[in-house]
Structure formats: structure tokens, C-alpha cells
Known about the structure:
This protein has 307 residues and is α/β, with parallel strands linked by helices. The chain contains 13 helices and 11 strands.
Amino acid sequence: MKVRLSPEVAEAISHNDPVVALESTIISHGMPYPQNLTMAQEVEEQVRAHGATPATIAIINGELRAGLSKDEIHDFAKKGPSIVKVSRRDIPVVMAKKQDGATTVAGTMIIAALAGIRIFATGGIGGVHRGAETTMDISADLEELAQTNVAVVCAGAKSILDLGLTLEYLETKGVPVLGYKTHELPAFYTRESGFKVDARVDSAEEFAAILKHKWHLGLQGGVVIANPVPEAYSLDKKAMDDTIAKALREMEALGIKGKDTTPFLLQKVKDLTAGKSLETNIQLVLNNARLAAQIAVAMNNTSQPVF
Length: 307
């Protein structure tokens, strides 16, 4: 086994019970301590409460892991951004150096697939950054979605990105973008973006059927399951557009680029919204964990399509 499974995850997989992958970058880099620790614990509990087993994905001492102990999650939360952020390109380096690594969406998808886990809940996926026509700054998450058979339940792409170009890229790669009870792509902090999803889906059972048909046909790659943040926690779109524009101007003035852009922008948006964006971030992750667990359960209950 290339991935070391926690006893809880190993038992679930051996019995073919539903499992939901969770990323570790959202713990180490997504929000400050101790909110990140509380969020990670609550997300795992939401998955369990809805009938599935949580498998937080990370690299510890160079070992690929699916399922962390309470102490290991606390360690990641406390160390925060000092832990290496790991996407596809970084995995072999971190393994060889026997380091700890917090997996991004792409990194989590790879390890989840190796462990046999098909459903993954996160906050928002990466995408095409604004100005990418000159910077070529495009998240590895999109390429991973094109080739790895894991469905990602998220609140859309992070609103700091160019959402139109992100959707164009996913279309080119043949990645379905499906909205849960919505025709519109959510934009992380807000329920609307002005962009349409490929199809609206109204139940976990329908998602399960779509995923089984896709992979049964040999159509490689993932699926984006866009789940809007609960209405009570959705921020005003116009206010968020203005806030993000201000954060982007400051980032450009400071010359921040590459993998440092997302953590900087999320922190800046948090500061500019007096912490409201952090509460929204936490609630949307919990919301995604609930839906992911329901889909994982439905996957187990849906018979393989017959052709």
C-alpha cells in the first residue's frame, strides 16, 4: 500500500463503507490557529454524522497518509504555514526529505485516488488567476481534475480568481462542473458569480449516478461539485468584488506571486471584512463536508450502471 491508512479509514475501506477525503492545506494555510483546529475537528464530525468516515490527507515524515489522529491534526493546525504546501510536483521531494506536507486540492486528489477514495470535500478549488494571460498563473488543481478520478465538493472556485477563464479551462479539459440545487457557479464567499454551471443536480443520489456513469465509461478525470455557501453566511457580491479588487492591488504592489498569492489574499480579505470572511469560510467547508458524506453514502447505495 502506497498510502498509510489510519485504523478508522482502513476499516471503512476494507468493508467498502463510504469515505470522504479532506485536505490538510486548509488546516495549515487556510485559516489561523485555533480556528483551523476547531474547523478541522468539526468537519470530521460532520462527515461522521452523515454516515461516512473522514480521511484527512497529508504527508507525515515523508509518508503518504489518509486519516490523521487528533494529535496529528492538532500538530498541523499549530504549525500552520511553516508546514510545506504540497501539490503534485512537491510530493516526491517531501517524501524523499521525510518532511511533513500539507496537501492542496491537487495533492489531496492524488493521495485519495491512491487510497481508493473517490469523494473529497474542501473549501474552494484553485483556478486561473487574474492576469494569467501574461503571468501563466494557473493552479495545478485544474490539471489534476482533468486526470484524476476524484469528485471535489467545493463552494466553487475561490473568488480571488478569474472565474470565467477557470470555467473555460475546465471545459477544455472535459471536467463537468455541476451545481447543487443551483444553475449558477458559487464564488466561494458568495452564492452567485454571474457564471453558469454545466448542469444543476438536486440530490446526492443523482450525483452518485453521474459519477458512476462517468467512471464506468472510462472517462478519466474528476468532477467539480459546486455547493453554494448557506444563505445565512453568504457575503454581499458587490462588497466582496470591491474587497478582492483592493486586495489584488495591494498584492501586486508588494510583488507577491506564485503559491504565496492565495494565502496572502485570503488573509487580506479576512482583514478587510473584519473577520466575516473567515466565518463564511468555516461554514462553507462544513456545508461541503455534509454534502460529500451524503454523496459517498449514495455511491455505496447506487448499483453499478449496466450498458
